[in-house]
Amino acid sequence: MEESTAPQSKKGAKKAEAKAKKEALKAQRAAELAAAAAGANGNLEDDPAKDNYGNSQTTTPGFSQDAEEVEIRSLDESYNGKTVVVRAWLQKSRIQSAKMGFVELRKGGNWTIQGVVMASEQEPVVSRRMVKWVAGINPESYVVVEAKVTKPLEPVKSCRVSGLELHITKCFVLAPAPTMLGLTLGAASQPIVNFSDEGARLADADTEKAAEPTAEAAVPAASMLTHLDNIAMHKRAPVQQAIADIRVEVKKLFRSYLEARRFKEFEPPCLIGAASEGGANVFRLAYFGQEAFLAQSPQFYKQFEIAGGRERVFSIGPVFRAENSNTPRHMTEFTGLDLEMEIKHSYTEVLDTLEGVLLSIFRGLQERCAEEIDTVRAVYPSEPLLLPEPGKEVRLTFAEAQKLLREEGPAEFANVRDDEDMSTPQEKALGEVVRAKYKTDFYVIDKFPETARPFYAKIDDAGTTVGDGVRVTNAFDFFIRGQEVLSGGQRIHDPVELEERIRAKGVDPKSAGIKEYLTTFQQVGVPPHGGGGIGLDRVVAWFLALPSVHLAAYYPRTPKRLLP
Ligand code: ATP
């Protein structure tokens, strides 16, 4: 992605935060003034409109019989002239004169419509007091209104439903918001410029990079910390609603692509009895006098399903990593989209399936979520993800990728080796070289050296070696915009070969978890198989070129953050 934005210093981030607070205070004062003006209503008994407004304890205060309950998103020309009931958040209010006020109502993500409240002595009566009261409602209160749908003289540019407005004749607050919001919708809708979990402290070089504002904004932005401390407002921001809707769609597309190809869903356990895939990165917890662990991946369980005759399986679920990685790419809990399948002739069947599912997700999102993508881009500008033309997918071997980096990448990578894993900066640099050369942001790197893969990775049958005689594996990673989103490959299904590789990697085949894993392959004949694991959060984040994966998660978990 082009990074066309000016960097912001730590001091700048702090200043923006202070400005946001000042802005909120100003809004509070304005709301208090409006409330005081409206609150001078004292005894309402003499107000002819007294039954048409107020705070309501019931969800259905009295409405006209002919008024239809309608969602803002459903309002179209056919409603012109009709009386409707709308439930929504009041996001803005403004008094125009003693007789007239305006509000903005929002529901369904970012569907907004203007409401007009105008004093009228004729039925339905709207008093001046009612006008003041409605215009004084605190932003983000949940209201229900009865209104006549009308065409405005001019389109209301500030609202998504611009060709219609609501002439409010009844308005009840079902759930009032406080006069002062910890985070206004305006601030929550600005790009987040600081993802640190510790106030203005920036955790590492990656976080520094993320701390760049996208545009000069009228409303100051808030930090991720402020967003998470005001979780409801964070979520109410249309950009977060759009990201959440895109995330839902990714899961649907993953599931539907695989189900159409005879894959069956299953649920691997999160609680496991052994830190089978490497002890260091695993969360430990007390378990009835013993120790339990949180699963770092469903890997072994996917393979048990294959051993158990399920042929083609997938799972969607939480994965836990006890890594103290404070970067925009890492979380301690994320959602894995995993699959495993029998192989008939070649591990490229697995590669084809994984490439197919990801391309179908990306193309599906571009087709089904165009509006949501635009909403996100308005806040976090990015170029559309460049996809390969059908039949022109880019698959490089690890050695080819390193050669490309040596020859066409930045000078600092002129000596990268074919038998050593890539660093994150190398991956990003390669992403740019591949984009320029092959016109795609999505590509595969295959045949990783055995030194860079776990013991269960199948060694290449042809005996290919790289560097100082290091064998390569039938294992691959997938990248978008130079960032890894998937790891996969063929697994060893022969128990003798598996035991030999377990030992070669310095793991004890009799250790807890490994023993049960190996035994499964000894107990029955397990067909050749392979699969892969996709990080859902990273797919969403890098598809949209968001500055941090934390924006794609509902409740990001990091080494320093477990709440909310
Ligand atoms: P990395 O090297 O970036 O830490 P990894 O090689 O440990 O990732 P895998 O164990 O291969 O990742 O996990 C499969 C996929 O899960 C990754 O391609 C990525 O999309 C996602 N993933 C892995 N670790 C994390 C994490 N800490 N936070 C979010 N997503 C992750």
* Gap between N and C termini: 31 Å
Strand order of the main beta sheet, please?
8-12-13-20-19-18-15-14
Radius of gyration: 28 Å
Could you tell me the CATH topology label of the largest domain. Answer: BirA Bifunctional Protein, domain 2
Biased composition (Basic and acidic residues): 14-26
InterPro entries: Aa-tRNA-synt_II, aa-tRNA-synth_II, aa-tRNA-synth_II/BPL/LPL, Asp-tRNA_synthase_2, Asp/Asn-tRNA-synth_IIb, NA-bd_OB-fold
Organism: Coniochaeta pulveracea
Protein name: Probable aspartate--tRNA ligase, cytoplasmic
Can you describe this structure?
It is a single chain. The protein folds into 3 domains: 35-175, Beta Barrel (OB fold (Dihydrolipoamide Acetyltransferase, E2P)), CATH 2.40.50; 188-236, no CATH class; 240-552, BirA Bifunctional Protein, domain 2. The protein contains 15 helices and 20 strands. It has helices spanning 10-39, 128-135, 185-188, 205-210, 224-229, 231-236, 238-259, 299-307, 348-368, 370-379, 398-408, 424-438, 495-504, 514-523, 536-543, and strands spanning 53-55, 68-69, 83-97, 100-107, 111-118, 141-150, 161-175, 264-265, 271-272, 284-287, 290-294, 312-320, 333-342, 394-397, 442-446, 465-466, 470-471, 475-480, 483-491, 529-535. The longest helix has 30 residues, at 10-39. Helix 7 packs across helix 10 (370-379) and helix 7 crosses helix 15 (536-543). The strands form 4 sheets. It has an 8-stranded mixed β-sheet with strand order 8-12-13-20-19-18-15-14, sandwiched between helices. Strands 3-4-5-7-6 form a 5-stranded mixed β-barrel. The radius of gyration is 28 Å and the shape is elongated. Helix content is 31%, strand content 23%. With 564 residues, the chain is of the alpha+beta class. It starts with 9 loop residues before the first helix and ends in a 21-residue tail after the last helix. Residues 27-40 have a biased composition (Low complexity). Residues 246-564 form the Aminoacyl-transfer RNA synthetases class-II family profile domain. It is found in: Cytoplasm. Its main location: cytoplasm. Residues 53-63 have a biased composition (Polar residues).
